[in-house]
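Field notebook, page 453. I keep forgetting to write these up properly, so this time I am using the form the group agreed on. The chain and the ligand, pyridoxal-5'-phosphate, are recorded exactly as supplied. Prediction of the bound pose follows.
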Amino acid sequence: MGAIQLRTSIPGPASKELWRRRKEAVPAGIYHAAPVFIARSEGALVEDVDGNRMIDFAGGIGCLNVGHRAPRVLAAVRAQLDRYLHACFSVTPYELYVSLAEKMNARAPGAFPKKTMFVNSGAEAVENAVKIARCYTGRPAIVCFEDAFHGRTLLTMSMTSKTHPYKAGFGPFAGEIYRLPYAYCFRCAYSRTFPDCAVHCGRELRTLFQRGVAAETVAAVVVEPVLGEGGFVPAPREFFEVLQQICREHGILLIADEVQTGFGRTGTLFACDRLGIVPDILVTAKSLGGGLPLAGVTGRAEVMDAPGVGGIGGTFGGSPLSLAAAHAVLEIVDDEKLAARADELGERFRSRAIYWQSRWPEIGDVRGLGAMQAIELVRDPGSREPAKALAEEVARHCHERGLLVLTAGTYGNVIRLLVPLNILRPQFEEGLDVLEAALAAAFEQQHESARTI
Ligand SMILES: Cc1ncc(COP(=O)(O)O)c(C=O)c1O
């Protein structure tokens, strides 16, 4: 018997009733990927309120590299519950914070002294990284990338690229943000081909300094080592070499946003490790807390020390429960060799996806780094016109068959894999079988309607 067990159609009656209440009580603008309400979870499995057991390839949007309710995370949180819940690090500091900062400083790329602060969310961490970079350099401008996602607060929404639904209607935006195309080779903004292009897109940073913003006014370049929400786009290593080189020439800080890529997801603890990136500031969140809200800003000690006392911090940043969980997360990632496991999962996904691509022309691109893998769907392989509706259909078929998946991409046409990295092998294979069946169903449906037109 497989891991997936469906007692009702998806969504079942209890989920439907909660949907009705949710519509009344909660703003429409909050998105939902799956049509079910969760009742409990364990490892890579989720049970909904109708008793349906599903396999989770979404991991709460990449927050569960160590799986749902990892036993060591639960034990650490339970032990912490009996000590203290909240004190505020700015009132009575606690060792848990300092020791996690020490671990992050030791593990973040770069052989130089580092310091770490903790906040509650990825967006808050990106905001703090930018604040600190501005304070250290005394410069206002920030360079970020097309198809980037950095969050939903005013500054991070302004840095985010996709207009609908993230920006439209929410202006005016924060100023001094400049943008360049990312190394999105499948949709190269300059119609070039890697490696012949010699990462022209990265070199365009120099052009931006002539035509958009003076280099000496730029505090930081903020970049995701692999685009997350923007479609799981792994940029070539050379892209980062060029960015780093140009940043160093101009005294600009390089900030790596590893909110989605961190903690083993891409085959190394941080994607920076694999790509040879040594950022001045590393931003982490999501899987750091093992399911609890926690984010980190780790950077060169002299940079991190720039803001005056009281200039950074917050009431809940570095909550003791989240910190206890994060200590356990780091141990699990090491002990269970989750980074190596990410590579295994990624290779398995890739080999299946390449077979799917040979079968269905709608799979325009198969790409990723480690377990951060995705397929990009197109209406036609020649034009590469994005197939958003098709991706939504695939996701719907997955959900109906008991597999939680997420779409992504500026065009919403990417199916991405954010599975817990310690998923059991048979569960992973079962999930891939369901994804294959969902692709077949969605593509058949599309071929059928093309025939009847
Ligand atoms: C790369 C990246 N940065 C920042 C964020 C924002 O994180 P949060 O939703 O925790 O604010 C996300 C969230 O998906 C992300 O993927």
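OBSERVATIONS:
- The longest helix spans residues 425-452.
- The CA atoms of residues 244 and 304 lie 19 Å apart.
FOLLOW-UP: compare against the apo run.
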